[in-house]
Automatic annotation (TrEMBL):
Peptidoglycan recognition protein family domain residues: 101-246
Protein origin, superkingdom: Eukaryota
Protein name: Peptidoglycan recognition protein family domain-containing protein
Protein family membership: Belongs to the N-acetylmuramoyl-L-alanine amidase 2 family.
InterPro entries xref list: Amidase/PGRP_sf, Amidase_domain, PGRP, PGRP_domain_met/bac
Entry keywords, A to Z: Immunity, Innate immunity, Membrane, Transmembrane, Transmembrane helix
Keyword Transmembrane found: yes
Native species: Aedes albopictus (Asian tiger mosquito)
Transmembrane segments: 64-88
Short name of one Pfam family: Amidase_2
Length: 271
């Protein structure tokens, strides 16, 4: 009897050490659960390295694709910058300007509200023509004197015709540009052509026998260059002077003596 009990105890102990019975017909409920769980655990350990390798591969591919897109965008941006630079280099420039452009805006010499200076706008964004003529007045050599002359031209135009100063810009003997009607407004000369594609620049003074000072010519060039830079004047603009048949033939002769040598010069308009 003792031997039989000892054998049963050893058999029970062996079953506990190895829950999965080698005899399929004697599997207990505990043995079935153990038999289901053990292969799953082994399967997870077996395939985990493959999943990690696949994730790392996908991440590498995504990183490579992102770097490729960023590189392509960088080359595209560089190409655009080079194209714009080459385009700007092809824009004809009148001349290198060493004299700085100095604009005295209208509100400096015109103290009335801006609403009272409403004029007809130009129909074209960039004008094609520039007409230069003298004001047939005294010459000024400092800003205070030039402002006084510009105000006088404004008052004369208002008293005679009920209109504002007819010039788009005026060039003073102090080497500064005085804003009249500006870049975006029609000039006020009824006897001059190009009402919608021309700006008129007046050179303050009378230059029948005396040539303007070098600083005035330099400021005219600075004004033209600035007009192109602001896209208010075509780089291929045409430059004209004025011949008035009712005045002596030498009217403004000294003013045009140098301007006629400039590259954009096209001749005179007759009034």
């Amino acid at each position: 009897m003792y031997s039989t009990a000892r054998t049963a105890a050893i058999s029970s102990s062996n079953r506990l050490k190895n829950p999965i019975s080698r005899n399929g017909s004697n599997l207990s409920e505990y043995d079935l659960e153990a038999g289901e769980h053990t292969p799953l655990l082994v399967s997870r350990v077996r395939f985990a390295p493959d999943v990690d390798d696949r994730s790392r591969h996908i991440q590498t591919v995504q990183t490579t694709a992102l770097l490729g897109i960023l590189t392509l965008l960088l080359f595209l941006l560089i190409g655009i910058i080079i194209a714009v630079y080459l385009l700007l280099m092809q824009v004809p420039r009148p001349w290198p300007v060493s004299h700085p452009f100095y604009l005295v805006e209208r509100n400096v010499w015109w103290k009335q509200p801006t609403e009272e200076f409403q004029l007809n706008p130009l129909e074209k964004y960039a004008t094609q023509n520039v007409i230069i003529l003298h004001t047939r007045s005294e010459t000024c050599h400092d800003q205070a004197a030039c402002i006084e002359l510009v105000q006088k031209l404004q008052n004369d135009a208002w008293n005679l015709n009920g209109t504002h100063i007819p010039y788009n810009f005026l060039i003073g003997g102090d080497g500064k540009t005085y804003e009249g009607r500006g870049w975006k407004t029609q000039h006020g000369f009824s006897n001059l052509p190009g009402i919608n594609d021309t700006i008129v620049v007046g050179v303050i003074g009378t230059f029948n026998d005396q040539r303007p000072g070098p600083v005035m010519y330099a400021e005219i060039k600075a004004l033209l260059t600035e007009s192109i830079r602001r896209y208010c004047l075509s780089p291929n603009y045409r430059l004209f002077g004025v011949i008035d048949n009712s005045i002596a033939n030498n009217a403004a002769a000294e003013l045009y003596a140098e301007i006629k040598e400039w590259r954009h010069w096209k001749g005179f308009v007759t009034v």
